[in-house]
Every structure is written in structure tokens, then in C-alpha cells.
Amino acid sequence: MIELDGLEVSGVSVGGVASCIDLPALKVCVDLGVILDRTVARDVVLITHAHADHLGSLVQHVAQRGLRGMPPATYVVPPGIEQDVEALLEVWRRLDGGELAAKIRPLPPGEALSLRPDLQVTPFATAHRVPSQGYLFERVGKRLAESLGGASRAEIKARREAGEPIHQPTCEAILAITGDTSIDGLVAHPEVMAAPRLVVEATFLDDRVTPERAAAFGHIHLDELAELADRLTCEHLLINHVSARHSPSEARRLVAERLPAALAARTQVMVSRIRPSAD
Length: 279
Hints:
alpha/beta
């Protein structure tokens, strides 16, 4: 488990192996490259893209909810892949002989989905080798309309009783998760780089893979994040999707060495492993 200013982020994220990020306080998880027992309870699952290490355990999630008597979950997917995802489930229904009930919901970038009265999530376009998107979580609320600034309580009450709106909506970013993307999918979204908590992929960390090669794969190289340090105004940065070629200790060392000190000081690395590691 990793804590980002009081917000718990847990799960698994190993490049090319499996990714499933759980957000208990928000009651959602992002991607299903592996099934984790605690994520079975998530009624909403946000899928960044359809590579097997991010979607391969979808049917297990669906099946486990059915076995436990839970209602069908909603699986948010990038627009354009929903029919293929439905087709995958239909094949499994024939093989399994069960209902495998699920709600597949395409959600385009820029369209907000309400998760609860005070929380919404909005996809943003990323740049990967297949249709992909990240997710920006925002706290929503309301405050007194600016037009009523300085108004007396009596005037505010009178306007409310007259049916006039006295509040205006507020929206505050709390977390962004990129999913798999090249650096272009990050720099295109200043609001994502400015989110107070940012979970960003950095699959490649050293000179064994160049930034150019990383981009060709649709991924980010750590050196590209270092070059963006002045524009990454997030308060907490969590690097995930690190290649399995890097041990946990090596990943932490490279991040500390290759990022500018000010950025490294507010950066953590998600080094969860599916199988035990001696490191």
C-alpha cells in the first residue's frame, strides 16, 4: 500500500505482466490485468486500454462477483472497444455456461461520470499503441455564487425563496492516473500534470531502452519525466508500470538518481510484484 497525502493506492503494476490499481477510498479500481480479492467488491472498474496485462482478468472479476451474489459491475472502457469486450465475454459465457453479467460502458475523453454526489471521474486521451485513456478524479461541490458575494443573509434567503440559484458548482482535482502512454499523452494535459496526486507510467528507467524506443512502444522513459520536472507541478508523483527487468531496489535507486532532487523528493515508486521477490 502507498499513501499519497492520505489517499491509499494499492495493487499491482508491472510493465508487460499485470496492472490493477485499487483506490479503496474512492471505491474504484483501474484496470484488471490481475484479479485481487479486495477489488472484487468494486462496482466501477476503469479500463485504460485492452492489452492483456490490463484487461486479461476481466472475466474473473465478472465471475467472482456472480459467485458472491453481487450485482453486475460497470466496466468503463475507451470508446470503440466496447463491442470487442462484449464479444470476449460472450465467448466466455459459451465456454463457462454461466450468465457472467457485466455492464460495459464506453466513456469518451471529456465526459464526466459521477461516482457519488461529491466525486466524479473524467477520461483524458492518452497516446498508446491501441485506443487508450487515463482518468482524472475530481471532488465536486458547490459554493455561494460570486454574484452574491457580500450579500446579506436576508438577501440570500429572499433570492433562494424566489427560486433564484444561489450556488455555483465547484470542481477540484484530487488524483490523475495515466495508464499506458507515451510522453505525448501526458504533456497534452496540463490539468493532469497539475493534479495534486499523479500516478504516471514510466516503464523504462535506464539506458537499456532509449526514450525514443520507449515512445515507439507507447511508453514513457524516466528521463522524459526528468525533462518535464518544471512542468510537473503535482504535489505527489507515483511512478508505476515499471518493467520487470528492474528490481524494486534498482527502480527506487534509478528514480532517486535520474530525477531532479526536488521532483525525486515527492516521488514514490510502485514496485508491487505478483510473485515473491528476494529483493
